[in-house]
TrEMBL record:
Coiled coil: none annotated. Keywords: DNA-binding, Methyltransferase, Restriction system, S-adenosyl-L-methionine, Transferase. Transmembrane segments: none annotated. The keyword rRNA processing does not apply. This is Methyltransferase. It comes from Dyadobacter frigoris. Residues 47-92 form the DNA methylase N-4/N-6 domain. One of its GO terms (cellular component) is cytoplasm.
Length: 381
């Protein structure tokens, strides 16, 4: 059997495995930490697991420079790989940091909440809602809002990322276990027309933060792997195009922002406001870049990653099929050209394209990406 045939057969087996393991929803089978808090456009945990299991080895150092919800770093850690994440979005940084540092026990984290609750009770009456924008006030009962503000301030000061992520995870929805007036779960839009106050008065009443926070933490820690606490893991909150990780990386696995197909700051604007981001539009210019800006950022990233990757290291990218009006090609083609032709030290060893089901789109009428592409590049020693 020829080497070419063997490689193509191996790739077909990998594709068959992907279609078997990654097409259906992972909710229900994934670790409960993946559901810590919503994040638009995040990679499925089953896809992250597939990429890590099939293209890396235990003990490898995995780096995700656009880690978003922390799906890849968490899966890497659970599978015995050292994990480094990075994201310029403060919400993403906190969420990933939380997943890489879960509590040792439920009793420990509840004791921590009880300690903070005493401080909240002392400070909550001093909160002046006149300093809070009206669009934020519209989501909450005033007393609930005061509690959220104080809880957030304390948890940020203490860098208690796990509890803070759980708080952000219950920030808005119409269900009783959440803190807001009726609104959507992922992207913050009020649903007061669908749930008028006169017909649904209970949805507009005061909601205790502490009680709901404890229940959220119980749900979030319900299903966890036996993590190896000796495995290295860390998350940065820096510009991916400028960050240089000093350790040698065995594999970069990431899903970069797709040339403003999604607005990560706008669609997380309520959570970001509590984290200190007053103007989400300014942040979106950076973390949800337009085409020209994105191509420059990804080019700088690829050059930096080349320096960070070990000999025979892998660059594994999960991409949408964005079409570049400037270069007249798709995003996967742009990146392939940069790595193979410009940098010139890589070969494409695996490629797979799959259709994005409409039920996985945040916006049902969205006319953006219809195909997701996996590209695996091997660095030539």
């Amino acid at each position: 059997m020829s080497e070419v045939f063997t490689e193509s057969l191996q790739n077909q087996l990998l594709i068959d495995q992907f279609n078997k393991e990654c097409v259906n929803s992972a909710v229900g089978s994934e670790w409960s930490l993946h559901q810590l808090s919503p994040y638009i456009g995040k990679i499925k945990s089953s896809i992250a697991k597939y990429l890590i299991e099939n293209f890396t080895q235990k003990g490898d150092l995995i780096f995700d420079p656009f880690c978003g919800a922390g799906t890849i770093p968490l899966e890497a850690w659970s599978l015995g790989r050292n994990a480094i994440g990075n994201d310029l979005n403060k919400y993403a940084f906190i969420l990933t940091s939380a997943k890489l540092s879960p509590p040792n026990s439920l009793n420990e984290i509840i004791s921590e909440i009880e300690k903070y609750d005493k401080e909240v009770s002392e400070r909550v009456k001093t909160v002046n809602l006149a300093n809070v924008p009206e669009w934020v006030q519209a989501f909450f009962h005033p007393e609930t809002l005061r509690e959220i503000i104080v809880w957030t301030e304390i948890l940020k000061t203490e860098e208690s990322w796990f509890i803070l992520s759980c708080l952000l995870g219950i920030l808005h929805h119409q269900r009783p276990g959440f803190l807001s007036h009726p609104s959507s779960h992922t992207v913050p839009y009020l649903r007061t027309n669908k749930f008028p106050k006169g017909e649904f008065p209970s949805l507009y009443e005061y909601r205790s933060v502490k009680d709901r926070l404890i229940k959220k933490i119980i749900r979030a820690t319900k299903k966890q792997p036996n993590f190896d606490l000796g495995i290295g893991r860390h998350c940065y909150n820096e510009d991916a195009s400028k960050l240089i990780v000093r350790e040698k990386i065995d594999a970069i696995i990431t899903s970069p922002p797709y040339m403003r197909q999604l607005n990560y700051a706008r669609d997380n604007r309520l959570r970001l406001w509590f984290l200190g981001v007053e103007n989400h539009k300014v942040l979106d210019e950076i973390i949800s870049p337009k085409e020209i800006d994105f191509i420059k950022i990804i080019t700088d990233c690829l050059k930096n990653w080349n320096e960070m990757l070990s000999s025979n290291g892998k660059c594994i990218l999960f991409l949408g099929d964005n079409y570049s009006k400037k270069y007249k090609v798709t995003l996967p083609e742009i990146i392939s050209n940069i790595l193979i032709n410009d940098i010139g030290k890589y070969e494409l060893t695996f490629k797979h394209e799959s259709l994005i089901p409409s039920n996985r789109r945040v916006r049902r009428d969205h006319s953006g990406n219809k195909i997701e592409t996996i590209l695996v590049f091997q660095k030539i020693a």
